[in-house]
Specification:
CATH superfamily of the largest domain: Response regulator
Structural class: alpha/beta
Helix content: 40-55%
Number of strands: 5
Order of helices and strands: EHEHEHEHEHHHHHH
Radius of gyration: 19 Å
Distance between the termini: 53 Å
CATH architecture of the largest domain: 3-Layer(aba) Sandwich
Length: about 210
């Protein structure tokens, strides 16, 4: 009896990355790449057409991000299984992906053998995170996630804006802006804006261009 192969959709906006992944995965006796996509919209279309067992997706896609694509896929296909690959290992990026419904998360620097282990584990119904990333998520407090508004306030504060300027930018009073900053510093367990910015960059909440 012929063994069922794990049918894969590879999503990455870099052609040579897709080519490398596809070549490596198709070399495995129990895997087959059935489709490729270079952006979120195309990924959704390819999923509709091919119904793969698992999606391997870059977390940083042009236009629609990896997490946004994951959200859209789960809305239409609640049982979709997605393994997120990203150059970012920031705690916030991993947290958002896993909260968004990803079944696993790996840095792009991961060795092939770990990628294969992750694919097989997720196909078997498990979740997969490298031990170091899993430990960092376990240490995270239940209320440590910044809201979208708090991330916006922190980004403005990181650029040196005053409470009044932040309030004007987001349409609130300087008192409300100050309250947001107080909540942000409590969640990040810091005492000033400079430290908040540093921790936010380390965790991947803010991205320095």
């Amino acid at each position: 009896m012929k063994k069922h192969r794990i049918r894969l959709l590879v999503v990455d906006d870099h052609f040579f990355v897709r080519m490398g992944l596809t070549g490596s995965l198709n070399g495995e006796p129990d895997m087959r790449v059935v489709a490729e996509a270079d952006n979120g919209g195309q990924a959704i279309q390819m999923y509709r057409e091919h119904k793969p067992d698992l999606v391997i997706m870059d977390g940083r896609l042009p236009g629609m991000s990896g997490v946004e694509t994951l959200t859209a896929l789960r809305r239409e296909f609640p049982n979709v299984r997605v393994l997120m690959l990203s150059i970012d290992e920031g705690e916030e990026d991993v947290y958002r992906a896993m909260q968004g419904g990803a079944c696993g998360y790996l840095p792009k620097a991961t060795q092939l053998q770990e990628l294969l282990r992750a694919i097989r584990a997720i196909h078997a119904g498990e979740r997969y995170l490298p031990p170091a990333l899993a430990a960092r998520l376990q240490e995270r407090g239940p209320d440590a996630t910044l809201t979208a508004r708090e991330r916006e306030v922190l980004e403005l504060a990181s650029k040196g804006l005053t409470n009044r300027e932040i309030g004007e930018a987001i349409g609130c009073s300087d008192t409300t802006a100050k309250w947001h900053l107080k909540n942000i510093m409590q969640k990040l367990e810091v005492t000033d804006r400079t430290e908040a910015t540093r921790v936010a960059v380390e965790r991947g909440i803010l991205h320095v261009e």
